[in-house]
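R.M. (postdoc): so does anyone remember the format we settled on? I'll just put the structure tokens first.
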């Protein structure tokens, strides 16, 4: 009698253990019904400085702030360039840790250069470290889509977003809006719960017109109107009340002048260098063997330029351990430029740039958000862009991977944050 009941119990125990195992092996979305899951749609306006919206009337960004959250500013990661920061936003890792250490760099192990203008490097998954939020989502059974977000054109950990596009700089902004809207109208099985999309302005306008110019103002008004078109279309969709919208940017823009330039050619001989990478105001130099001190001491003579060995970059910049970072790192002071003379001479639009110290306020970006997850009329203090990954993971109920970011720094913007 006893024996039989023991056997019954053990069969029951094995069955239970098996079912529990199955439960934990499932992607996390199946823990709840996918139709209960909210949506996150994140737009980046490249180079939209934290205070651009204060310069002109921006009724549509104001609408988001009134109905949701606006951050005083968002601090980029160092260097405040486009590729490192877009990829930090989606991975929650500093550039030193995700490996896209600049818009251009050399990987000594792969023996390859990475350049944003080179399709083979942008599409090569081996360059991209960490785990972008769309990979976390796809791995857990949540569909994602991307219109040109940095990194979305490469198989990262072997995974692409369910929908992605090859970068086409000239593809009209309004057509991008229509595609994003159409993705949100797909059948429930095909519809992505996470969409990241990208507009490459006002970055180039900031470079050519200057961030303090009169001309930049009409450009900001235009971009705000695009946000308005997007929101209007989005609010007409059936599932509008489930969609969380984030409008953010990768960095800001600082005013420069040809009267304040440090020319590396004036300080170092090209034959001292094995390699270099960078552009105004951020450079990395790899001296040839035996020339480290020559390059270092020569550059240190320049005023308005910070020059460090990679091991000595200030801790607060979280930069210097990655093998892709060259031995010497140089960044100009705010308002100053470092660039080769031939490049400066040819540049007719030398009025704005970015790449400076991430604590430089002009480098700060925007963060606006509204939707069911967010509080209303809430101003969030400045935060670092490493915290967006855990924020999105939380909203989409995904199990996040370990990152440099932490939900606790941004949870106050959420309605339910415990
Ligand atoms: P920068 O101002 O030099 O940091 O870079 C801004 C530029 O990056 C934009 O003008 C875009 O042309 C370019 N860009 C952004 N995303 C991509 C992409 N996925 N592939 C190639 N270029 C891109
Ligand atoms: Zn940018
Ligand atoms: Zn730029």
């Amino acid at each position: 009698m006893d024996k039989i009941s023991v056997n019954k119990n053990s069969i029951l125990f094995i069955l239970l253990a098996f079912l529990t195992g199955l439960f934990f092996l499932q992607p996390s979305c199946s823990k709840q019904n996918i139709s209960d899951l909210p949506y996150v749609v994140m737009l980046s306006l490249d180079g939209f400085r934290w205070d651009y919206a204060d310069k002109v009337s921006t009724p549509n960004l104001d609408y988001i702030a009134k109905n949701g959250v606006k951050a005083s500013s968002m601090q980029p990661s160092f260097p405040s360039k486009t590729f490192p920061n877009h990829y930090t936003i989606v991975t929650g890792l500093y550039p030193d840790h995700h490996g896209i250490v600049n818009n251009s760099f050399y990987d000594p192990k792969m023996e390859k250069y990475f350049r944003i203008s080179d399709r083979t490097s942008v599409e090569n998954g081996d360059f991209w470290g960490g785990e972008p939020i769309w990979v976390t989502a796809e791995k857990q059974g949540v569909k994602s889509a991307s219109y040109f977000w940095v990194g979305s054109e490469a198989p990262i950990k072997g995974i692409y977003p369910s929908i992605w596009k090859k970068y086409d700089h000239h593809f009209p902004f309004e057509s991008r809006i229509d595609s994003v809207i159409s993705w949100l109208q797909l059948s429930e099985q095909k519809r992505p719960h996470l969409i990241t999309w990208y507009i490459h302005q006002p970055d180039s306008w900031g470079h050519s017109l200057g961030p303090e110019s009169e001309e930049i103002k009409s450009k900001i008004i235009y971009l705000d109107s695009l946000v308005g078109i997007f929101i209007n279309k989005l609010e007409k969709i059936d599932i509008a009340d489930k969609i969380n919208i984030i409008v953010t940017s990768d960095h800001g823009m600082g005013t420069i002048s040809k009267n304040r330039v440090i020319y590396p050619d004036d300080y170092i001989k090209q034959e001292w260098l094995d390699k270099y990478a960078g552009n105004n105001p951020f450079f990395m130099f790899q001296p040839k063997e035996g020339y480290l001190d020559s390059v270092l001491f020569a550059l240190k003579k320049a005023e308005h330029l910070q020059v460090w060995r990679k091991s000595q970059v200030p801790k607060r910049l979280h930069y210097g351990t990655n093998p892709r970072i060259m031995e010497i790192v140089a960044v100009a002071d705010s308002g100053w430029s470092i660039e080769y003379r031939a490049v400066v001479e040819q540049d007719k639009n030398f009025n704005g740039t970015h790449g400076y110290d991430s604590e430089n306020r002009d480098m700060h970006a925007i963060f606006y958000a509204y939707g069911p997850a967010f509080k209303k009329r809430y101003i969030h203090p400045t935060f670092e862009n490493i915290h967006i990954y855990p924020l999105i993971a939380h909203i989409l109920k995904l199990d996040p991977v370990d990152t440099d970011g932490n939900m606790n720094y941004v949870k106050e913007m959420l309605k339910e944050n415990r």
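R.M.: ...and that's the designed sequence above, right after the tokens. Also worth knowing: Residues 34-253+358-413 form a domain with the Alkaline Phosphatase, subunit A fold (CATH 3.40.720.10). The CA atoms of residues 212 and 255 lie 7 Å apart.
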